[in-house]
Amino acid sequence: MITERHMSKGSETSEDVAGQAREWLVRLHAGDLSAETREGFEAWIAQSTAHRTAFREAEQIWRDFDYVARKADLTAAEPSIFERAMAWLQAAFARPAYAFGGAAATIAMFALVAINATNLRAPDQIALTPDFATAIAEIREITLEDGTIVTLGAKSEIAAAFSGDARRVTLLTGEAFFDVAKDASRPFYVAADDTVVRVVGTKFDVKRSAGQVHVAVLEGVVEVMKDEALTSTADSQAQKQVLTAGLQVSVERRQSVPTASPLENIEPGAWRDGRLAYDNVRLKVIVDDVNRYAERPLRIASSDLEDLRLTTAFRTSEIPQMLEVLEVVQPIEVDDSGAGPIVLRRKS
Q1: CB neighbours of residue 325 within 10 Å
Q2: Residue 71 DSSP label
Q3: Looking at the domain 274-346, which fold is it?
Q4: Structure pTM?
């Protein structure tokens, strides 16, 4: 239980603060919120940046439930996963009293969240089961239950969850182009890593690559935000960008959404016709894309070469020719002598 000892910051550890944040979140969502509890929370949250950061992280788990709880199945969960979930819950509640009253529903909710909360936050630990997936070099058109058409890029995966008040798709890997059916009563969300795109009806492209989420708009208007901006705090408003047709943005994980920039001679979703085009883009991003189409994967030999920026365009059927040109016009040596990946090295 949160007590006056929590008001003293001198001896607090990060573990203490995380526990306090979980307790506050449970109390705030457990129902029958008293003025005293609200005042206590406001005093605690104002004490330090560490408190605010820990509470945002706890809120993130709560919000993730809204995306993924519909796919959770506690009865089918592996024992080890369930045990980890319960360990998390034990840390969240300081007293047995939390198991009663309004908090009982909260505990059940957190049990679902504990199993699935990393689904949108850690691309290397994704637990969602894809509803649709493609193989290397495969492009697939999918019609969702609301009439939205999704063109799924090569080696890509999405999961979909529709409800009465919202439509949600999670881009687990790769790239997808969305032609969203208009429905003003049910906004359409696309989640990719810690970035969320919100629309009603429009055409746009979303790609996960090299630690970034790239969004480009062909028609209409989309709102790009960090997932914490789904709450209505003042700070979160600065995490949003509105994109209209012809604009794009590349969002780094755990970084603010930058200002949108115009697309230059590149049409969003051009890859649907087998053409990859880039304007001043990192080599790492291009290689990640090529590896979703190439029979033999590419590998960059050194991290310093990953940040080399290129402007180029080529067809997915012409990757060998692209590599030949790359070797001529860039300080890159292409080594395809082995049986494994084709290696890109900086010329000496």
Answers
A1: 12
A2: G
A3: Phage tail protein beta-alpha-beta fold (3.55.50)
A4: 0.64
